[in-house]
Every structure is written in C-alpha cells, then in structure tokens.
Automatic annotation (TrEMBL):
Annotated organism of origin: Planomonospora corallina
Pfam families named among the record's database cross-references: MFS_1
Transmembrane feature ranges: 97-120, 132-155, 161-183, 204-225, 237-258, 270-288, 294-313, 325-347, 353-371
Domain of life: Bacteria
Protein's UniProt name: MFS transporter
Topology term for the membrane: Multi-pass membrane protein
Xref: PROSITE patterns: MFS
Record keywords, A-Z: Cell membrane, Membrane, Transmembrane, Transmembrane helix, Transport
Keyword rRNA processing listed: no
Subcellular location: Cell membrane
Domain called Major facilitator superfamily (MFS) profile: residue spans: 7-377
Lineage, opening ranks: Bacteria, Bacillati, Actinomycetota, Actinomycetes, Streptosporangiales
Length: 380
C-alpha cells in the first residue's frame, strides 16, 4: 500500500467499509421483510429485485456520470444515497418506503461501483496490484459484514440497519474531506456519443462477453455450490464453509498470485487461466460425492477470481483511457450482469447437470480470451 497514493489508499479502505456495511444488512433483509414485517414472499422478491435492478440496470449511468462530473463527486453521492437507503430500511414499514429504500440503495451501487474502479484505474501506477489489493479489502469487508450483522441482530434488525447506514455516512464524510478531486478530461463527444464509441469498440465487446463468464461463475457461489453443500451434508450450516474458504484464500493469496502472474505470463493468459481454473473446479462436485469436492470447487472459484480479476479491471481501464474509464466500466458491468443472470437461469434449469455447465462456461470463456490474444498479436 505504501506504493499507492493517499487517494487510492482511501478508496481501498472505502471498499472495505462498503462491503462491511452491505453484507451487514443485505443477507438478513429477506428475513426481516418476511419475518419482522410479515410481507409475503412475492412482495419480498419484488423489493429485492428492485434493489438489484436499480443497481445492475444503471451502471452505465453511473459510469458516464463519473466521466462527465468527476469520479470523486459520484463516489460521494453514491455513499450518501446508500446511507439514506439503509436508513429507510431501518425505519420503513410500508411497501412504498421499502421500495424507495431499495431504489436508493441500488442506485448508490450503480454510482460508486464504476466510479471507484475508474478512479483507481487512472490514479494507481501499478493497476493490477492496486486492483488485487482492492479485492483483498473487499473480501475482508465481505467477511466482517455478516459477522457484525449476526451480532447486531441479537438486538434487532433496526440496530443492524442503523449501523450499516452509519458506516456509509462515515464513508461519505471521509471522502468529502480527504478524497482529492481529479481534473475531468473532455471526451470530445456527447454522452450518447461516448456510449456509441464504447459499443462500437469490437475488441472491448468481445473482451466483455468472454470475461462476463467470470461473473456468471462467481454467482454460483450463491446457487450451485450452496445446493451441493447442503445436499452433501444435509444441513444448511455447511454453506458457511464455502464463504469461509473463499474469503480466507483471497486474504492469504491474492497479492502473491498477482505478483507471480505478472512475472510469469501475459495478462491475457493469466485471465484465461483464471477462467479455466474457475470452470474446472466445478468438475469436482460433478464427478465426486461429499462435501470435500464442493469445497474444492469453492477454492478453485476463489483462486480463479484472484488470477483474473485484477487484470480484467486493469484492461477495462486501458480500453477506456482517462476520459472514458467510467463509461467502459459501466458497460462492462451492465453486460456482465445480464450474462450472469441469463447464465444463472440456464444453470438452474440444468438441475443436476449445473456443475457440468459451469465447467463448460469457464473453459469456453478461457478459450475465447486466448483466441482474442492471438488475433491481437496477428493484427499488431
């Protein structure tokens, strides 16, 4: 971290806080809506779906706002909106208020997620290592959040929601006071022109489609692997082991893996290898019974993400450059979200063959990255 500017260090701490606050509240939200408030499963699904749609569907808006208005202001606005959204979840008891909370908290993520990554992509000298550290801080927050939330739920859900809102309020103030503004370079075009330029970038779109497989497979930490773990052990408590294995592996090995890959191979091959490892890991529960193969798949998923993700974010920043990094991150997240949702539906429909489908997704996407590398070398 000593190699990074104070601004990037602050954003790393910010990501720890963001994930702590998010996972402190969101994993327990469905239980609060159905249990404490007595809402039906259908209404609860609508509220949670609105939150997810507000985030996934507006990433492009958040990315463009970061390019046009400056990433600093968009990051601060996003954290402030999530403060308001989580505070509404704490005190809201009617469906309209809960829907407003869902929209605000989703819009918040759509604003600060691409903006933070665009800021780091431009500011950090060694972008791959900066994003590797970014993942470490994110994983640490994802570990601390549910633990803190579980303790606060011993009081009640409102205590957890107020604490989550307070975390985002502190992040908002800290960034307003410390995060320096960066000059906003002109793109030389309108917002629609920026979007057209991004969508006309065939190399970027091919890259996005290939690497969207990373998000599709990551999502299976919430579908295929939990179902396999519960089936293998007969208890829902075994699902926690998946997240423990994934998080601890990321905290221990992320920086080592990134440094090794930087020295050992090209960025494209590192990303392809990461996708292949993610996919191959699903062969273990597909072929072998018991909880151990499921844990192997969770570990392979974590290792594959560690291998690919820092270089993915580095490459997106390279595609967008200083003036359009936010827009490119927004498009990447939007496309990846759609592909991940469609893939998860397909994998769920496949039933028992879902793990085999996951393995195929990883290997096909890895091959696509290698083909793109070869074509780039030919045209260079």
């Amino acid at each position: 971290m000593r190699e990074l500017s104070w601004a990037v260090r602050l954003l790393l701490v910010n990501q720890f806080g963001v994930n702590t606050g998010f996972y402190l509240l969101v994993p327990y939200l469905a239980g609060h809506l159905t249990g404490d408030l007595g809402l039906s499963a259908a209404v609860t699904g609508v509220i949670l779906g609105v939150r997810n749609l507000s985030q996934q569907g507006l990433f492009l808006i958040g990315g463009s706002a970061a390019d046009r208005l400056g990433a600093r202001g968009v990051i601060i606005t996003g954290c402030a909106l999530r403060t308001a959204g989580f505070a509404l979840f704490a005190f809201g008891t009617t469906v309209p208020l809960l829907l407003a909370a869902a929209v605000l908290s989703g819009l918040a993520g759509a604003l600060f997620n691409p903006a933070v990554r665009a800021y780091v992509a431009v500011e950090a000298p060694d972008k791959a290592r900066a994003f590797a550290l970014f993942n470490v801080f994110a994983q640490a927050g994802a570990l601390c959040g549910p633990l803190l939330g579980g303790v606060l739920l011993l009081v009640d859900f409102r205590a957890a929601a107020i604490t989550a809102a307070a975390i985002f309020m502190v992040l908002t103030v800290a960034q307003a006071l410390v995060l320096p503004a960066r000059a906003v370079p002109p793109s030389g075009s309108s917002v629609l022109g920026d979007w057209r330029r991004c969508l006309a970038d065939r190399r970027f779109l091919a890259f996005t489609l290939a690497l969207s497989g990373m998000f599709a497979l990551q999502n299976q930490l919430y579908l295929v692997l939990p179902l396999a773990a519960e089936q293998a052990t007969g208890t829902a408590g075994s699902v926690a082991l998946l997240f423990l294995v994934s998080t601890v592996a990321s905290l221990l090995f992320q920086m080592r893996i990134t440094r090794w890959l930087e020295a050992a191979t090209s960025r494209d091959r590192a990303m392809a290898l990461g996708l292949a490892v993610m996919g191959a890991g699903f062969l273990a529960p597909a072929l072998l019974p018991g909880i151990a193969p499921v844990l192997v798949a969770a570990l392979a998923l974590a290792v594959g993400v560690m291998m690919a993700q820092p270089f993915v974010y580095e490459r997106i920043g390279h595609f967008g450059g200083e003036s359009l990094a936010g827009t490119y991150f927004g498009v990447f997240y939007l496309v990846s979200g759609v592909v991940a949702a469609a893939s998860t539906a397909l994998i769920g429909w496949a039933g028992a063959a879902g793990a085999a489908v996951c393995a195929a997704v990883g290997l096909v996407c890895a091959a696509a990255v290698l083909v793109q590398e070869r074509r780039a070398a030919v045209t260079a």
